[in-house]
Amino acid sequence: MNVRRISLCIAAGCSLALCASASGAGSGAVLTEFYGAGVHQYFSGNYGQAVSSLTAAINGGTRDPRAYYFRALAAMQSGGGGSDVEADLRKGAALESADADQFYAVGRSLERVQGQARMTLERYRALARAEAYTRRHDRDLLRYEQRRRAEADVLRRAPVTPVPPADLIPAPPPAVAPAVVPPPPVPAANDNPFDEPPADEPADAVAPPPSDEEMPAEDAAAAEAPAAEDNPFADEPEAAK
Question: How many domains does the chain have?
């Protein structure tokens, strides 16, 4: 492969990337186009052109880890290697591990990459994930220690309220039992004017008449024989006849 041609392509790609970066909002789209072209050229077997396109995207400031991955893969397929390939693999793995939101679909983009190149790439990815986990763990541990020390410092500086001696603390007042109010008296049944008389003694009962033994003789005779003048059916006297 003509190295001079590759260098010219890289220079042209860098110039285009720099122009795209100066255009502001449109730079991201241009860098994406460089990356897409580089991936297409890689799978087409044009490894030199793939290196040029991906280098243009990288020099333009892309944060896509796949650009570094495919540039390293293209360099390996074209017979290159060494420190440049290792640097690209490390950089791509570092960007991927820092992408907590997984904005870039790295796994899907690498599905077609197989063989020894894929195994080499996966070693760097695993190493980067382990390093990222260690960094997060150390950072969380440091934050915990800082927070714990800050809380201890606040507690140490907090004013302490003095406690008076036991003999100066006034005794609590004696407990007073609540006054017990007796219930109101319940009136007797015979004192209630609204009580009904017993069932065996009706209110309108009339006392029985006295017996003959209790009544005097004169009253008894008068009671047995009513007066003649009071009887309208009595016979007339003999003289009238």
Answer: 1
